[in-house]
Amino acid sequence: MTDILILIPIIIVALFGIAILIMSYFSLQKLTEGSLKKYAMLVWLALVVFSIGGALRSAQELDILTGSVSTDIEYMFYCIYYFVLLYAVYMLYQMSKQFGFSDKTSMMADALKARKGDSK
Predict the structure, then answer these.
(1) CA-CA distance, 27 to 16, in Å (whole number)?
(2) What is the pLDDT of residue 105?
(3) 49: closest CA among 39, 37, 41?
(4) Considering the entire predicted model, what is its pTM?
(5) Could you write out the DSSP letters of every residue in 17-77?
(6) Domain ranges of the chain
(7) Whole-angstrom Cα distance, residue 84 to residue 39?
(8) What integer pLDDT is reported at residue 43 of this predicted model?
(9) b (16+ CB within 10 A) / e for 29-47
(10) pLDDT of residue 17
């Protein structure tokens, strides 16, 4: 009975995960080429790698995979996931410099300070 109770949520999560990966991939194809699409593709790739690690974890829960080798492979996928995500965060930082987000943020902060000074 316990096996079925754990199997049902695993199947539901797997179906949702696959649907999200497919839908997000098709959504990414609608973006035009550029920094934002490259960033979004990296985040999507991180999701795929993380999902593979999760699938390996589920396989261990269902006793499909056993042993320390499968655990090592699972953690290898999680390491890849974090490296890809770290690179995506770096790309986001570079995009903020490229598009001048930090300059606009400081300009908005200065404008808000000046507005507060006018209202006194």
Answers:
(1) 16
(2) 63
(3) 41
(4) 0.60
(5) HHHHHHHHHHHHHTSPSSHHHHHHHHHHHHHHHHHHHHHHHHHHHTTSS-SHHHHHHHHHH
(6) 2-113
(7) 10
(8) 86
(9) eeeeeeeeeebbebbbbbb
(10) 84
**What are 98's two structure tokens?**
């490229």
* 80 in Cβ contact with 49 (< 8 Å): yes
Which of 88, 86, 104, 20 has the alpha carbon at shortest distance from 54?
Answer: 20
Q: How many CB atoms lie within 10 A of CB 49?
A: 20
* Averaged pLDDT of the chain: 79
Q: How many residues does the chain have?
A: 120
Angle, helices 68-98/101-119, rounded to nearest 10 degrees = 60
**Which tokens is 48 given?**
């795929």
**Position of tokens 């006018």?**
118
